[in-house]
């Protein structure tokens, strides 16, 4: 064994931390050198070949993809009127917002006092034009959720071209839609965490942990009376 090589026991201990293949970008090269030459050690190639984890690996499995903004990720969430996140999903930057619409709303669960279960149906919902399609609106009608979503320009033109067959325009409440800014304010609040705003970490599990910790309300500061009480006792 030359200088810079690792023993078999050391590689067995490192096995859980080795990268795995995502099945699309080929296999990771099994470099057994800490530094120096880049050669393979005979008889050790099977150590780095781990089983593919559930959900896939690689950039797609970690919620990263290439979009117009570069190699980025996207945060889809729902929030209440007090800018408190209810549920969120981290996806690749190129994924459309409407693809996570049902998944985000289906996971809402607000605890209630007493023996009743969590509340899963909001009184009303406001969303942007990205969710103005037939599938999203049909999902909301099926669950009986009142919603305010502006109609896209192309959808409106297609409806007008059909005449009476195009049906009536969807209802739109401007006053209720103004409250949609709570979602943008919630995202701005989460981005106060630099680890979430920049996402230097590659692993999706770490990003979800940082996002969940950032979504928690900050601890309440001590009141002036409590501070004086503590100073008097010391």
Whole-number average pLDDT?
A: 75
**Fraction of residues in β-strands:** 5-15%
Radius of gyration (CA) equals 25 Å
Q: Which strand order do you get reading across the main beta sheet?
A: 1-2-3
The number of helical runs is 10
In sequence order, what are the helices and strands, one letter per element?
A: HHEEEHEHEHHHHHH
Structural class: alpha+beta
Number of strands: 5
> What ranges have pLDDT less than 50 throughout 5 or more consecutive residues?
26-56, 219-234
Main beta sheet: 3 strands, antiparallel
User: Alpha-carbon distance between the termini?
Assistant: 63 Å
Residues in helices, as a percent range: 25-40%
Shape: globular
Q: Layout of helices and strands, plus pairs?
A:
Layout: H1 8-14, H2 58-61, E1 65-67, E2 70-79, E3 85-92, H3 101-106, E4 124-126, H4 134-143, E5 146-148, H5 153-161, H6 174-177, H7 181-190, H8 194-198, H9 204-215, H10 224-233
Parallel strand pairs: 4-5
Antiparallel strand pairs: 1-2, 2-3
Structure description:
This protein is an alpha+beta fold. The protein is 33% helix and 12% strand. The strands form 2 sheets. It has a 3-stranded antiparallel beta sheet with strand order 1-2-3. The protein has a two-stranded parallel ribbon with strand order 4-5. A hairpin with a 2-residue loop joins strand 1 and strand 2.
């Amino acid at each position: 064994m030359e200088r810079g090589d690792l023993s078999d026991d050391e590689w067995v201990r490192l096995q859980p931390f080795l990268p795995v293949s995502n099945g699309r970008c080929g296999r990771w090269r099994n470099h057994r050198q800490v530094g120096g030459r880049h050669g393979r050690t005979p008889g050790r190639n099977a150590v780095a070949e781990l089983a593919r984890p559930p959900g896939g690996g690689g950039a797609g499995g970690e919620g990263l993809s290439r979009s117009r903004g570069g190699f980025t990720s996207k945060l889809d969430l729902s929030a209440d009127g007090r800018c408190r996140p209810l549920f969120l999903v981290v996806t690749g930057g190129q994924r459309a917002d409407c693809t996570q619409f049902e998944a985000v709303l289906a996971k809402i669960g607000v605890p209630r006092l007493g023996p009743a279960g969590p509340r899963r149906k909001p009184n009303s919902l406001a969303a942007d034009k990205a969710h103005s399609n037939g599938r999203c609106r049909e999902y909301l009608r099926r669950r009986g959720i009142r919603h305010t979503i502006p109609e896209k320009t192309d959808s409106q033109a297609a409806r007008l071209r059909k005449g009476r067959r195009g049906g009536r325009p969807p209802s739109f409440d401007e006053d209720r839609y103004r409250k949609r800014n709570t979602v943008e304010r919630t995202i701005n609040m989460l981005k106060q965490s630099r680890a979430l705003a920049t996402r230097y970490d590659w692993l999706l599990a770490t990003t979800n942990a940082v996002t969940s910790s950032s979504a928690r309300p900050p601890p309440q500061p001590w009141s002036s009376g409590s501070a004086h009480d503590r100073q008097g006792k010391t």
